[in-house]
């Protein structure tokens, strides 16, 4: 297996994250100590939040579709009404177009931004705000090059998107600033170019929804890792980090001095957070179109500031220097890379501790549902309780990693 193929596998994500966790437990990390005695308390927080959010324990996947339900509004139903009697495959393409573009726009919004939804009269912030704003932008045809077919995203529509177009759709003003606005538009431009350059996967005109045809058209069942692998093979070049191994882009994959691996993969810690978040968000479109997806737990927990924040705020992870919480960190800084890796490994350890008191099996509550119940929401609750909602570490985001 090539170094790039290895780094694009969730097996490498898990193995390397687990190795960094074992190292930290041995007291060899210069960045964090691990307080295993706090794991059960962290799990209890997650269980309490899960019971509050989903009293019947009918927990859906952690996906972008939850944000489209913000404020108790079923926006997908409104979209489906407009899609009408189209064939299931064409609906799936539209659902995937929406989910993929929306996920790429779902990085930290910053504390000062919000979106006022005219129809509901509600104001949404952070991920919910970005989800609702991107839903309405999609519904208005912002990402389509064909005014007669607004309910799609295509290569030309994405590449001609201007910063001022997205700013207007997301209600950005000097008094309502959105972190990383230019970075988000640049990312959508690169997405459009990638769609256009790969018609064998994305069709003509290039659409994210081409992923459905590429995977559902095969004879074998669709696995979650198949979706992720195709995303990484076709879209790794769009990430601005420009991390490269053997001349190929590897996206959300970062250097860490203690990570070991064969050949050119040595020293690299892969995450693919947005690609995995996107994969989680594509499970339902496949299933709604009658194509079940198996092997969900091949995906990992998502190493972002809510899940990672849960572990810091619950005391499972403790910075070696308390002053580091006020420092402004870059995504490639080793402390951030290690924080994210420890998050991946510890989420795997938290999951059974969450399922047991809820009386649920792995089949009933895969990791996708533990996250939703769950760890992401508990991280937000603790952040709100301790600091008014801000994350425990200060990461300088370009709008594409966190």
Outline of this structure?
This protein has 402 residues and is mostly helical.
Structural description of this entry:
This protein is mainly alpha-helical. Helix content is 50%, strand content 8%. The chain has 17 helices and twelve strands. The strands form six sheets. Strands 1-10 form a two-stranded antiparallel sheet. Strands 2-3 form a two-stranded antiparallel ribbon. A two-stranded parallel sheet has the order 4-9. The longest helix has 25 residues, at 334-358. It is globular.
Highlighted features:
two-stranded antiparallel ribbon; 402 residues; mainly alpha; two-stranded antiparallel sheet; 50% helix; 12 strands
Task: Look at the helices and sheets and give the structural class.
Answer: mainly alpha
* Number of extended strands: 12
Order of helices and strands: HHEHHHHEEHHHHHHEHEEEEHEHEEHHE
Point out poorly predicted stretches: none
Indicate the proportion of strand residues: 5-15%
Mean pLDDT: 94
Tell me about the biggest sheet?
2 strands, antiparallel
Cα radius of gyration in angstroms: 20 Å
Helix content: 40-55%
Number of helices: 17
List the helices and strands and how they pair.
Layout: H1 3-7, H2 10-25, E1 32-34, H3 39-53, H4 64-67, H5 75-83, H6 88-104, E2 114-117, E3 122-125, H7 126-139, H8 155-159, H9 163-169, H10 181-197, H11 199-202, H12 210-216, E4 222-223, H13 224-235, E5 244-245, E6 248-249, E7 253-255, E8 268-270, H14 273-288, E9 293-294, H15 305-313, E10 317-319, E11 328-329, H16 334-358, H17 367-387, E12 394-395
Helix pairs in contact: 2-16, 3-16, 3-17, 6-7, 6-12, 6-14, 13-14, 15-16, 15-17
């Amino acid at each position: 297996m090539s170094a790039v193929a290895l780094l694009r596998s969730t097996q490498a994500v898990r193995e390397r994250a687990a190795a960094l966790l074992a190292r930290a437990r041995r007291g060899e990390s210069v960045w964090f100590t691990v307080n295993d005695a706090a794991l059960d308390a962290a799990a209890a927080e997650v269980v309490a939040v899960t019971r509050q959010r989903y009293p019947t324990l009918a927990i859906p996947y952690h996906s972008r579709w939850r944000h489209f339900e913000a404020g108790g509004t079923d926006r997908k139903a409104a979209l489906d009404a407009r899609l009408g009697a189209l064939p299931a495959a064409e609906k799936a393409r539209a659902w995937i177009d929406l989910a993929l573009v929306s996920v790429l726009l779902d990085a930290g919004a910053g504390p000062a931004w919000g979106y006022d939804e005219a129809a509901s009269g509600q104001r949404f912030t952070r991920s919910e705000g970005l989800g609702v704003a991107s839903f309405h932008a999609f519904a208005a045809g912002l990402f389509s090059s064909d005014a007669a077919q607004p309910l799609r995203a295509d290569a030309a529509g994405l590449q001609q998107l201007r910063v001022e177009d997205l700013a207007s759709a997301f209600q950005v003003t000097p008094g309502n600033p959105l972190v990383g606005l230019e970075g988000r538009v640049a990312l959508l431009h690169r997405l459009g170019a990638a769609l256009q350059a790969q018609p064998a996967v994305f069709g003509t005109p290039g659409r994210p929804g081409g992923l459905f045809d590429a995977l559902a058209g095969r004879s074998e069942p669709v696995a979650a890792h198949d979706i992720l692998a195709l995303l990484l093979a076709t879209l790794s070049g769009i990430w601005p980090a420009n991390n490269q191994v053997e001349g190929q882009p590897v996206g959300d994959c970062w250097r860490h001095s203690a990570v070991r691996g064969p050949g050119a993969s040595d020293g690299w810690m892969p995450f693919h957070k947005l690609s995995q978040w996107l994969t989680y968000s594509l499970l339902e479109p496949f299933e709604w179109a009658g194509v079940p997806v198996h092997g969900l737990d091949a995906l990992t927990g998502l190493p972002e500031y809510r899940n990672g924040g849960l572990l810091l705020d619950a005391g499972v992870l403790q910075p070696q220097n308390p002053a580091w919480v006020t420092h402004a960190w870059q995504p490639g800084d080793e402390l951030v890379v290690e924080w994210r890796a420890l998050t991946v490994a510890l989420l795997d350890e938290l999951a059974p501790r969450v399922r047991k008191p809820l009386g649920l099996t792995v089949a009933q509550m895969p990791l996708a549902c533990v996250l939703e119940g769950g760890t992401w929401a508990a991280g937000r609750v603790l952040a709100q309780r301790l600091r008014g909602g801000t994350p425990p570490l200060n990461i300088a985001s370009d709008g594409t990693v966190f």
